[in-house]
Automatic annotation (TrEMBL):
<keyword id="KW-0720">Serine protease</keyword>
<dbReference type="InterPro" id="IPR036034">
    <property type="entry name" value="PDZ_sf"/>
</dbReference>
<dbReference type="Pfam" id="PF13365">
    <property type="entry name" value="Trypsin_2"/>
</dbReference>
<keyword id="KW-0732">Signal</keyword>
<comment type="similarity">
    <text>Belongs to the peptidase S1C family.</text>
</comment>
<feature type="domain" description="PDZ">
    <location>
        <begin position="254"/>
        <end position="311"/>
    </location>
</feature>
<feature type="domain" description="PDZ">
    <location>
        <begin position="467"/>
        <end position="531"/>
    </location>
</feature>
<feature type="domain" description="PDZ">
    <location>
        <begin position="583"/>
        <end position="673"/>
    </location>
</feature>
<keyword id="KW-0378">Hydrolase</keyword>
<dbReference type="InterPro" id="IPR001478">
    <property type="entry name" value="PDZ"/>
</dbReference>
<dbReference type="Pfam" id="PF17820">
    <property type="entry name" value="PDZ_6"/>
</dbReference>
<dbReference type="Pfam" id="PF00595">
    <property type="entry name" value="PDZ"/>
</dbReference>
<feature type="signal peptide">
    <location>
        <begin position="1"/>
        <end position="25"/>
    </location>
</feature>
<dbReference type="InterPro" id="IPR001940">
    <property type="entry name" value="Peptidase_S1C"/>
</dbReference>
<dbReference type="InterPro" id="IPR043504">
    <property type="entry name" value="Peptidase_S1_PA_chymotrypsin"/>
</dbReference>
<dbReference type="InterPro" id="IPR009003">
    <property type="entry name" value="Peptidase_S1_PA"/>
</dbReference>
<dbReference type="InterPro" id="IPR041489">
    <property type="entry name" value="PDZ_6"/>
</dbReference>
Length: 689
């Protein structure tokens, strides 16, 4: 993810049509009569003006490091106060949000609430002063039929708002084909973050693309009848939307409370399809230690009634509504389940409890060079870690403290304690290891790997990392680049023998001061012939020079046309190469920088006096990336201060942030042959980590 490439646009779980799932594509139903253009225009004008693009700065984790990227989705303003309904996967891992309106206006937004189980989220626009927003409305009932015309609106690929038209293929679709096991449905949609548990999808063929996620599906009355969420890579325009009435209920609850509270009994359901039964719903699995298990419920039982009301789910598409009904029971309430078990009927009384989180918070912990996720009960069951509390290692920075601990930690390890203190969550870890230990003493880490409990020694690292390379022995340097010329090539070119032809003379170099020019053919050093082994490698020449002593004076024989030259050269130490320069990772900018070296100046034909800092890497979603800073830029000024070196860059950034004047901080860079001005937005500097 570099700042020069376009933002990564998001439509979660673009599905690849496998042979087993191609049956889903066969349901396309053409509209029997095309609607009048005026009807489509009226529906469009009710909703499209309040459809927004959402710019999300995401924090993902790669090899234990937090990496900021930019993603895009769509949403709809649904209240006069500026609440925006969208998908949870659009806001997922978001650290900061911007909303772009149809008229091009761009405003910051805050996350009001998210519900991964329904894949819905709500943002609230933050205008500079209070205002009333135009908005659209959800449909109160799902009354779609196959063949009904629908309009998909949003910002595909992060472009400005667009609209496509299609028809409803199936208003109640579960993504389970005739050949799939419905028991795997939730896990296929997300192992640690299942979604779509409580509704069936609207399948339609209005064209959508990545970036449409969270945008509205609109009927010809101008109602939001769905929220576009999923699409197919293959199989034509095959798209899936969350039903509008279901989305409305979740969105309203998120606006009111910021979260969705659901009840949990500890079992999973599946339809009667393939069982030969015609009454009830099948209990597919029962969690160990749950209220259901303690009450005597077993996998294979059939639930035939809930609080005295009969229930039957003959097909997979019937299951979500029943699961939603159970989830909406009051937390702590007693529920009566009529069950068929071992050929007999009985009634169980269970008490609901709050539904636990499926996935715990994940965060990078810089002192360990690792990303860690809080282990939930659901994650523990899936990993055979039931009853444990700790932090799951999800990634390691190569060469970081955790990767070089004694012994090294590994992905999948469960961190249990640090210096004897339990770390059940990220806050506990921060309290125990957030500050440098006295005299940089190693920490004793207890962790679980499979069934084993192990210990390790780990030395944490804190703060911005300035890398100072180990000093290297000076090597002799002649100051030229050369092209190998073999004997056969010399004959073909009409040159006076083999050697190394000078292709570049560095300014102020030893051979340059001795009078060498581009085109000279170097043939010997101190009467020892120079011979090229092939026509591609210049290594023999440079190795011969490096074998000599720094400050040694040598005679280099050369040919210049018909002339024979004897160049008196005083060799010098080679300038530092890139690997030998100091680097600085700036957390505030989310950019990697390093010293400006001799070869950087030479490559761009800059004067030897040129100062600045070279940009080595930029996170696309960090403040530097959002300012369009690129790898290879040379920073020469930040704010009102000239940048000469790495400490100067750090000081200039701190001073600009302390100043606090203006919305942006100017940044002057050298890019190629140009000098450019970029702008760092204070909003991103303060809103992103």
């Amino acid at each position: 993810m570099t700042c020069s490439r376009p933002a990564a646009f998001l439509l979660a779980a673009w599905l690849v049509l496998t042979p087993a799932s191609r049956a889903l594509a066969a349901d396309a139903v053409p509209a029997t009569e095309a609607p009048a253009p005026s009807t489509i225009a009226a529906a469009r004008d009710k909703v499209l003006p309040v459809v927004v693009s959402i710019l999300t700065v995401r924090e993902d984790f790669k090899q234990g490091e937090p990496v900021l990227t930019v993603s895009s989705g769509s949403g709809t303003v649904v209240t006069p106060e500026g609440h925006v309904a969208t998908n949870a996967h659009v806001t997922q891992k978001g650290k900061s949000f911007r909303v772009v309106f149809a008229d091009g206006r761009e405003l910051p937004a805050r996350l009001v609430g998210t519900d991964t189980l329904s894949d819905l989220a709500v943002l609230k626009v933050q205008p500079p002063k209070a205002e009333t927003f135009a908005h659209a409305r959800f449909a109160d009932v799902l009354d779609l039929a196959p063949g009904d015309t629908v309009l998909a609106m949003g910002a595909p690929w992060g472009l400005s708002n667009s609209m496509s038209a299609g028809v409803v293929n199936n208003p109640r679709r579960l993504l389970v084909s005739l050949f799939d096991d419905e028991a795997d449905y939730e896990d296929r949609l997300g192992a640690d973050e299942p979604t779509g548990r409580y509704y069936a999808w609207i399948q339609h063929d209005a064209a959508i693309a990545p970036g449409n996620s969270g945008g509205p599906l609109v009927d010809l009355s101008g109602r939001i009848v769905g929220v576009n969420t999923r699409g197919m890579i293959f199989g034509g325009d095959l798209a899936f939307a969350i039903p509008g009435p279901d989305a409305r209920d979740v969105v309203n609850a998120l606006i009111e409370r910021g979260e969705i509270k659901r009840s949990h009994l500890g079992f999973r359901l599946r339809s009667l399809k393939g069982t030969g039964e015609t009454e009830g719903v099948l209990v597919n699995s029962v969690e160990r230690g749950s209220a259901a298990e303690k009450g005597g419920l077993r996998a294979g039982d059939r639930i035939v009634s809930v609080d005295g009301e009969p229930v039957t789910t003959l097909q997979p598409v019937d299951v979500p509504a029943l699961q939603r009904r159970i989830a909406e029971l009051p937390i702590g309430a007693e529920v009566r389940l009529g069950i068929a078990q071992d050929g007999k009927r009985r009634e169980l009384k269970l008490t609901t409890r709050a539904q636990p989180e499926d996935r715990g918070e994940e965060r990078a912990f810089a002192p360990f060079g690792a990303s860690l996720a809080e282990l939930t009960a659901a994650m523990g069951r899936r990993r055979n870690l039931e009853g444990e509390r700790g932090l799951l290692v999800t990634g390691l920075r190569p060469g970081g403290p955790a990767a070089i601990a004694r012994p090294a930690l590994d992905e999948g390890d469960l961190l249990l304690s640090v210096d004897g203190k339990p770390v059940p969550d990220l806050e506990a870890l921060e309290a125990v290891a957030g500050e440098p230990p006295p005299e940089n003493q190693p920490l004793v880490i207890e962790y679980r790997r499979g069934p084993e409990r192990r210990i390790a020694l780990l030395v944490p690292r804190h703060g911005d990392q300035m890398r100072v390379p180990l000093p290297e022995l000076d090597k002799a340097w002649a100051g030229v680049e050369v092209q190998p010329v073999t004997s056969s090539l010399a004959r073909e070119l009409g040159l006076a023998g083999p050697g190394f032809r000078i292709t570049r003379v560095y300014p102020g170099s030893p051979l340059g001061e001795a009078g060498a020019r581009v085109g000279d053919l170097l043939t010997a050093i101190d009467d020892v012939a120079l011979r090229a082994g092939n026509e591609t490698s210049d290594l023999p020449f440079h190795q011969r020079v490096r074998d000599l002593a720094v400050n040694q004076k040598v005679t280099m024989q050369a040919r210049r046309g018909d002339q024979t030259l004897a160049l008196q050269v005083a060799l010098r130490a080679a300038p530092a190469n890139t690997a030998s320069l100091r680097t600085l990772a700036l957390t505030k900018l989310r950019a990697q920088t390093r010293e400006l070296g001799f070869f950087d100046r030479a490559a761009r034909e800059l004067p030897a006096s040129q100062q600045g800092v070279m940009v080595d890497g930029v996170e696309a979603g960090g403040p530097a990336g959002l300012a369009h800073l690129k790898r290879g830029d040379i920073i020469v000024r930040l704010g009102d201060q000239v940048v000469r070196d790495l400490p100067g860059l750090q000081a200039a950034l701190d001073a600009a942030l302390e100043n606090g004047n203006g919305r942006v901080i100017p940044l002057q860079v050298l890019r190629g042959a140009e000098s450019r001005i970029l702008y760092l937005e204070r909003y991103w500097l303060t809103e992103t980590p």
